[in-house]
Amino acid sequence: MAIQKITAGQGLVGGGTSSNVNVAIDVSVVPQLDGGNAFTGNQTVDGDMLVGNTLTTTFLAVNSADLVPNLNANLLENIPASGFAKTGAHNTFDRGQTINGSVVVSGNSVEINPYPEFGMSQSGVIGFGCNDYTNETPEAIPEAGAGVVGMGGYQINPGSGTGGCGVFGLGGDQIGFGGGGSGVSGFGGDGSDGQWGGNGGDFLGGAANNGSGGPGIAVKGGNAEFPTRAAYEDEFHTAGNGVNADGGMSWSPYAGPGMGGIFFGGSGQYVNGADGIWGVPGYGPTRKMDGRAGVFEGNVLVMGNLHVSGHKSFVIDHPVRPAEQLLTHACVESSELLTIYSGNAVMNTKGRASVRLPKWFEALNQDFRYQLTAIGAAAPVFIEQEIQNCRFVIAGGRPHMKVSWQITAVRHDAYAKIEPLEVETKKAKRERGFYVHPAAFKQQERKGLQWANHPEVMRQIAERRSEFAKGEHQNRAGKKAEVIMKP
């Protein structure tokens, strides 16, 4: 029987009823070995897949959300599989990476320009630590991840260089109107109910085996550069402060505001502890024009002894010429913890007067000394009865005479007993040959007492003053930059 009709089946095209019938493969549905093919469904390859002996991402596109478990990277530009980053695993990049978009890492995270809508589009690096969801007991004190962790590189060369910075921040310049950006900003995390908030920044100076440890933080205010225009009326600026510290505000009736700063001096196991804070003034053209080591705007509380090697005085506006002059008075000094009380008494008709003192007077004082002065006429006034039950009696005056009295006493309260005034003390062995005020004894500045106790600090102070003096010398030599003056 003759074939009357041929119909093309799946994967074929052609067919017909004529004597000459052609049937061909349908290349739109059947993959070709010598041509390019596009697969819209999932494909399974049991062996290796090679394209020109090289398998690269430019030759292979997988349009599926399913996993491709056996995709072999051995022939990707002849780079082994270990040379590629892997999702879900820790990766180390040996060279610098350029990332133009955002990067979020599960763990300690770094985001680059993550929140432009909050005005943070110009931030170089913003770190957010991951939460700690471990079901630990309160005693375990688990910690969440750090936002940014920086570790400086070691200095291993035999020279005298230094290690690298753990984190280096450089604030952006402001080209238009406004201020420059912060080099580094730190914000402590909020605390939960009844707990404490996190620190805005923690800094720990490096240790040294045979040298001085590094400071926990070293800061310097920005310079006030030479002006580029004439000054406006009443315009005056200053260079940047080394540190601006503001205590946190309290919006709760059950919590007080935070302090601007707390400083703890380092403890010494075998030597004296260090000072909590040391203030050094800024230098002027002459020593008399140096700044102050400290200024306190408001009341000052000292919870211990106050030692002053210079003058103790008050300075106020001059009572007669307050707009033009100041008035200075020195404090009275003594080798004892003295208290002084004075007043005026009027004699009765018998030439006597009884003077009442505060109820705490004898609890505070002992060893009383009296002075009496008759006013208006001479009189043999005297102390008829010394202080008893906070009262003393003056006699020997004329009726209705006015008498001025003064009592000097020595403190004997509880604190004065445990902290008596030591009038003469021996200098420590290392302090001998050094002076509180070396210039007063025609000694060099390096013979100052603090050079014996804090040589490294004093060396830094001397170097800074020397550097400043050299700059002033250059200015006096005619190298001072031109200042634009207001016409």
Explain what you see:
It is a single chain. The chain has helices at residues 361-364, 414-418, 449-453, 455-479; strands at residues 6-7, 12-16, 23-25, 109-111, 126-128, 313-317, 326-330, 338-346, 353-356, 365-375, 382-385, 391-395, 402-411. The chain is mainly β and 487 residues long. It has a three-stranded antiparallel beta sheet with strand order 1-2-3, with no helix packed on it. A three-stranded antiparallel beta sheet has the order 8-13-10. A three-stranded antiparallel beta sheet has the order 9-12-11, with no helix packed on it.
Individual helix count = 4
Gyration radius over CA: 43 Å
Globally, the shape reads: elongated
- Report the average pLDDT across residues: 75
Which second-level CATH architecture of the domain at 338-418 applies?
A: Sandwich
CATH fold naming of the domain at 338-418: Immunoglobulin-like
Task: Write a brief structural summary.
The chain is mainly beta and 487 residues long. It is 8% helix and 14% strand.
Supply database-style keywords.
487 residues; mainly beta; three-stranded antiparallel β-sheet; elongated
Strand-helix topology:
Layout: E1 6-7, E2 12-16, E3 23-25, E4 109-111, E5 126-128, E6 313-317, E7 326-330, E8 338-346, E9 353-356, H1 361-364, E10 365-375, E11 382-385, E12 391-395, E13 402-411, H2 414-418, H3 449-453, H4 455-479
